[in-house]
Every structure is written in C-alpha cells, then in structure tokens.
Amino acid sequence: MEGPRGRANRGNGNGGSFAGCGGASPAGELRRRGAYRGRVGRLIDISPPVSARLAVWPGDVPYARAVGLSIAAGANLELSAVTTTLHVGAHADAPSHYAGAGRAIDAVPLEAYYGPCEVVHVDVGRGERVLPRHLPGPPRAPRVLVRTGTFPDPARWNEDFASLSPELVDFLADHGVVLVGIDTPSVDPQESKALEAHQALLRRGVLNLEGLVLDHVAPGAYVLVALPLRLEGADASPVRAALVVPDTPDDPAGGADAPAGASP
Fold first, then answer.
1. Are 28 and 35 in contact (CB under 8 A)?
2. In whole angstroms, what is the distance from residue 229 CA to residue 49 CA?
3. CA 97, chain centre distance (Å)
4. pLDDT for 162-207, tens place per residue?
5. Running DSSP on this structure, what letter comes out for residue 88?
C-alpha cells in the first residue's frame, strides 16, 4: 500500500513534490529536506532579468517571447517560444564567436564555469580598458569577475562602457586564471573591430563571461556557477550566473561540493 511519502514522490522525479509551489519557496523546501549537501552558503544572482526591456548590442536580435498556448485563454497549459541573440544578458562567449577555427559553446569545458572565483572592483572611467594596475593585487582564484560600474542599467544601452585590456588578460593567465567575467556587454570596446581582448583570450586559452550584474556584490571570494547551454555549433549561450557565498571567508571554495574533475 502506498503511503503519503510514496504519493508525494510521484510529484517529480527528484525525491518529491513541492507543496504549494505557486506560493511557497521550492528552495526553502529543498533546504528543509537537506537537499543542499555540504557547507553551501546562500546564492547571489548576478544575471539581469531577460525580457523585451533588456538592451542588446545595436543591430543584434532583441529578446522576444511568443505565447503559443495560454492557460488564461483556456488552454490546459502554458507554452511559449523565444527569439533572441545568444549574447543576451549574462552570457558566455564561445571561441568560435571571434575565431573561425575556435570551439563552439558545446565543445567548451563546463569546468571553467563552476568553481572558486574572486570578484574585484576596479576604478576605471567610461570607455577605459582595465589594466593590471587597476586590480587590487594578483588574482586569488582561477576565475575573476571584474566590476567596473560603467554599464549600470542593462535596460539602457550606453556605448562607452569599460572593457578589458590584452595586458590584463595576459596578467590573469600568467596567474592561472581560466575564466574572466565583466559587468559590461563585451570585453572589448563597442567600436573595436580587432577585438584585442577577445584575441588575447583565444591566445591564452581563457574563457569569458559578459553582461554580469555585480553592483550588489562585495569584493571577495565566492564560488561561481554559470553553466552555458549545450547549444551545438553555437557562438555563445545565455547563462544564469550566480555566486555561492562561502561559509569560511578565507576558503574560496566555501566548502561547496565540487563535481569530480572540476578545476581547483
């Protein structure tokens, strides 16, 4: 005979249903059931909301969602489709975006997008490139996210955002950095055709994230989670980027359970 627990487990394929999912917090329910293993702290969302209001690169395809079926219109479920540039909001560039022989996003190692990272705040002006001297010191983690504050509103495009310098990419790579992220639409200036920072990333084997929101994040050590979709042959992928706040300030990994094979 099937008891209450057995009936609950029929709600999803992952150990039970979430009672009152329309109003209650699934995350809170997961915590109550101990579904978060290890000493994992709270999450900080560093992705902008994706909607038709979100600004995209001039001339690129804006985000739009078309509703095919609607519960409000009498359908038995909600069903929609989206059209958008893959470089929308927080996103990961694939090397194929800036190099003909570069790897597509489905061929890029996922390990780069998960693991210990450092958030740094830099004091640069609009239109400047971030140089090694702008950093507070050598990187303390294999992933570095750079907060410039020069693209303050993801819904309003400003073309004079800050970017990265090839010198910074070399400096980070020399210190073992495998991924660098920035709170602007690109690691290169809008008017750049040579894409010097992108080419430096390619030359040094460093991956990147763009379009992050870091104004509400204090400098320091975190665990980054920003996995791209497995889009076959694609030049980029949107990501839902988040930071795990470490339990121990001196431990960049924060005690989080890293998957086997993840970069240190």
1. no
2. 17
3. 17
4. 999 999 999 999 999 999 999 999 999 999 999 999 999 999 999 9
5. -
Verify whether residue 87 is a known catalytic residue: no
Q: Mind listing the pLDDT tens digit for each residue in 231-248? A: 999 999 999 999 999 776
27 backbone dihedrals φ, ψ, rounded to 5°: -65, -40
Greatest CA separation for the chain: 69
Q: List, in sequence order, every residue forming a beta bridge with 209; answer none if it has no partner.
A: 92, 181
Q: Which of 181, 249, 260 lies closest to 39 in space, CA to CA? A: 249
Q: Where are the domains of the chain?
A: 87-244
CATH code of the domain occupying 87-244 = 3.50.30.50
Catalytic residue (choose from 91, 97, 121, 198): 97
pTM: 0.81
Contact 50, 223 (CB under 8 A): no
